[in-house]
Amino acid sequence: MDEMTQRTVYVNGDYVAERDATVSIFDRGFLLADGVYEVSSVLGGKLVDFPGHMGRLKRSAAALEIALPWDEETLLAIHRELIRRNALDEGMVYLQLTRGSAGDRDFHYPDADTQPTLVLFTQAKSLVDARSGREGIRVATQPDWRWARRDIKTVQLLYPAMAKMAAKAAGADDAWLVEDGMVTEGASNNVWMLTHDATLVTRELSSAILPGITRAAVMTLAETLALQLEERAFSVEEAQQARECFVTSASSFVTPVIAIDGVPVGDGRPGEVARRLRAAYIEESRRRAL
Ligand code: PDD
């Protein structure tokens, strides 16, 4: 971004130009990846699934005993002010909360009175008309070598970044992570397949995956559309032979998967159920956005 298009970002109570935003080099988010985050999408200048994202932020922070001294109303006001100041119509708001800085490096958590660090910024992006949503994506599988508490949305994203780079090197658009022969989730999304007897399958919640906010919303929509739903793990082979596959996340909504490790899914084109769920999710999100 050049000087003319500098974003206004939020850092610990202040709205500042991005070039003036600073965080301590001793911040535990920087030194230890000791922090959690949320990504909320914005449609028509309004926040999608906001209560869900803030509910999960509270759970992530509580699981790591990171203080979160802002209530949901205050966090909503900060999100809205940033959207307003940046005239954001479509895209995302990224929020990061870290355990803060005790002024030095130390593995042990600092005193309870240490202020957590709260940073938010906007990202303008075309989400509804994304090419991936229309044409689908190709995924490549990678071993799931992340830690064992993937239900907490921490900023430890080095392995997902590595998996995405490996997938890119293999000629794919994104990575699916695999453990004990079963797909856990995408590097930054939840995975779904539609079986030939028209049952939608997505992995059950556990510490192996992130409880996706979009996943929950799409499960509700699937019920509305009278689709059969099953929560269970599936293998790479089963997904390759499914009628359809897709992924869900705040920034990708519902995105069809058209090939897995070079094997086309269905006829190799975005599936009908994924298309319907994507349209329904976008419509419902616009209606309910805050
Ligand atoms: N990623 N699983 C993982 C590992 C994720 O990183 C994400 C989200 C999801 C989907 O969760 P939700 O539907 O609540 O966005 C599942 C965000 C978008 C990111 O890191 O950019």
From TrEMBL:
Instruction: List UniProt keywords, sorted A-Z.
Output: Aminotransferase, Transferase
Enzyme Commission (EC) number: 2.6.1.42
By its UniProt entry, which SUPFAM superfamilies does this protein fall under?
A: D-aminoacid aminotransferase-like PLP-dependent enzymes (SSF56752)
Transferase as UniProt keyword: yes
Any one GO molecular-function label of the UniProt entry: D-alanine-2-oxoglutarate aminotransferase activity
For this protein, what reaction is catalysed?
Answer: L-leucine + 2-oxoglutarate = 4-methyl-2-oxopentanoate + L-glutamate; L-isoleucine + 2-oxoglutarate = (S)-3-methyl-2-oxopentanoate + L-glutamate; L-valine + 2-oxoglutarate = 3-methyl-2-oxobutanoate + L-glutamate
Pfam families from the xrefs? Aminotran_4
Q: In which pathway does it act?
A: Amino-acid biosynthesis; L-leucine biosynthesis; L-leucine from 3-methyl-2-oxobutanoate: step 4/4; Amino-acid biosynthesis; L-valine biosynthesis; L-valine from pyruvate: step 4/4; Amino-acid biosynthesis; L-isoleucine biosynthesis; L-isoleucine from 2-oxobutanoate: step 4/4
Known InterPro entries for this protein?
Aminotrans_IV, Aminotransferase-like, BCAT-like_C, BCAT-like_N, Class-IV_PLP-Dep_Aminotrnsfr
On the tree of life, the source organism's domain of life is: Bacteria
**Segments traversing the membrane:** none
Instruction: Name the family.
Output: Belongs to the class-IV pyridoxal-phosphate-dependent aminotransferase family.
What is the recorded function of this protein according to its Swiss-Prot or TrEMBL entry? Acts on leucine, isoleucine and valine.
Q: Any idea what this protein is called?
A: branched-chain-amino-acid transaminase
Lineage of origin: Bacteria, Pseudomonadati, Pseudomonadota, Gammaproteobacteria, Oceanospirillales
